Amino acid sequence: MTGLGTVRADRGRLLRGAALATLAAIAALGLQGQAALAQDTALNGVWRIEKPVDAVRTSEGEAPPLTPQANRAYQAHLSARKRGDTSFDSTTWCAAAGTPRMMLMNSPFEIVVNDPYIAFLHEWNWWARIVYLFDARANQPAQPQELALPGTPGAGAGPPTMPPPGGPEAPGDAAGGPPPLPGLGMPGGAMPELSDPNGPMGISTGKWEGKTLVIETTNLRPTTLIDNSGLPHGERLTITERLTLRGPDLLEDRIRFDDPDTFTRPWETVVTYRRDNHEIREDVCLDRIKQGEPAVR
Predict the structure, then answer these.
(1) Helix and strand tally (H, E) in the chain?
(2) Is the pLDDT at 124 greater than 70, yes or no?
(3) Element (H, E) at 275
(4) Does residue 21 register a pLDDT over 90?
(5) I need a surface site. Which of 89, 202, 244, 273 has the fewest CB within 10 A?
């Protein structure tokens, strides 16, 4: 009997150990899920640029490395603006400022995470950019990997409808903003097929690299400008952004420009944003123009 009791006791200890190990594994999975959720929602909220950028400079404080042809176009824009001629700037009639200019303007924007999408909702004329969190070629969702900074507020569900990448650029569409995106939330997160993939906001895909959200934007329409001063770009511009929380209320965006038609080499700039208690309000660019205000403040 003593031997049998020992066997039963050993079996009981083994079962209790297995149960505890199982509970620990479940708890670990729960913590991983909470970490992924925190990472997902850490960027949620309204942000405003700390120092609005009129003329972009490199992270070293130098002028962008323009090709001779691009520099001639840029100098022509600068001269025209000094004369009060802004016909080269399509925002004059409220067409979209585009990417990355919308991220450099003195206008708040809201980030809403709704996997497999992240929406950048800009107050300026109610434009928006959709970032698809998967490789567009493989349609594979990109999953967050690490816990974001503690104390960062979360947010609710994303918007029910969002504008398409790029959206309209015609002046007649400016007052009402871009139309809803057909197919948003399609099963499997498949990218919508677009008859004209080039637009002012471009097509953006993203992935998480640790705590950093990496966004690549291509298919940008060359009629837009990089900044308010009139810095041009070509059809082959690729923008790579690395957004990293440097504190609960401080967001850094390291922006890399690669455009062999416009720049002699790739280069980057860095901007920062502060979390803002401001709520995104309705903004109709044409109404502001009628009141004598500029399209871009």
Answers:
(1) 4, 11
(2) yes
(3) strand 267-276
(4) no
(5) 244
